[in-house]
Amino acid sequence: MDGIYAQDEERRLCLIAQSYSICENSIAVLSNLRTGKSHIFFGKSCKILGLGKSNTIQTVDSVWEEEIYNRIHPDDWKKRCLQELTFFRKVSSSHSKDIFSWYLENTIRMCDKEGEYHYWKHRIFYFSGDGQQGISYSLCLYNLTSEDSEAAYLINTMTGEKKILLTDGNQLLSAREKIILQMIQNGKSSKMIAEKLGISKHTVDRHRQNIIAKLQVNNTTEACHKAKRLGLID
Predict the structure, then answer these.
(1) What positions does the domain HTH luxR-type occupy (predicted)?
(2) Any idea which architecture 169-229 has in CATH?
(3) 81: number of Cβ within 10 Å
(4) Cβ distance 22 to 37 under 8 Å?
(5) How is the chain split into domains, by residue range?
(6) How does pLDDT run across 134-174, given as a tens digit for each residue?
């Protein structure tokens, strides 16, 4: 995609995210999964969390908004990550354009500046860029809610269909990918891993890239950290 056109596309999506933050008083996060940057739009509800200032924008070099994530209850953080990565896997592995009509909705607990937890509704939408295959952008919306739901739902914006998302952390990475990531966690290089497993270094490097993509991180250091928190490796 032409660089200038890509910037125009991202600016248009930023306007959409900003509109949500204004109309719903929500916190909206638009992430470019190809560049690894996110734009956070703070609606009025950000005052509850003590994050940012109303009607301001923050840009970060990550698709995981750590400042927001740090406010999520530890149990809900793990649950939310598994749900989000499961949804990402479903969308990225689908060959149907209709898959982008679905979004994920779940409920999480987030603590305010006083340390008190409140329920927040979280929604995530994925978009493909014009002329691009696969997922290019994600839009996350955080809204205060009085509802407490353990389930995560997939909702179709075209049909209204709603179904429960079933998660299984064991399916996020293959058995071989877990072994390789555990060896990386233990300080082994690609060359050492290749010799140990009897495969080529090229194959190891391909597994590393697949792991990074599946866990939506920037590098294997972040992959090890996230996988450990999710209980995928020791």
Answers:
(1) 166-231
(2) Orthogonal Bundle (1.10)
(3) 21
(4) no
(5) 3-164, 169-229
(6) 899 999 999 999 988 889 999 999 999 999 999 888 888 99
Q: What are phi and psi of 45, to 5 degrees?
A: -70, -10
Amino acid at 218: N
Tell me the three-class secondary structure of the chain, residue by residue. Answer: CCHHHHHHHHHHHHHHHHHHHHHCCCEEEEEECCCCEEEEEECCCHHHHCCCCCCEEEEECCCCCHHHHCCECHHHHHHHHHHHHHHHHHHHHCCCHHHHHEEEEEEEEEECCCCCEEEEEEEEEEECCCCCCCCCEEEEEEEECCCCCCCCEEEECCCCCEEECCCCHHHCCCHHHHHHHHHHHCCCCHHHHHHHHCCCHHHHHHHHHHHHHHHCCCCHHHHHHHHHHCCCCC
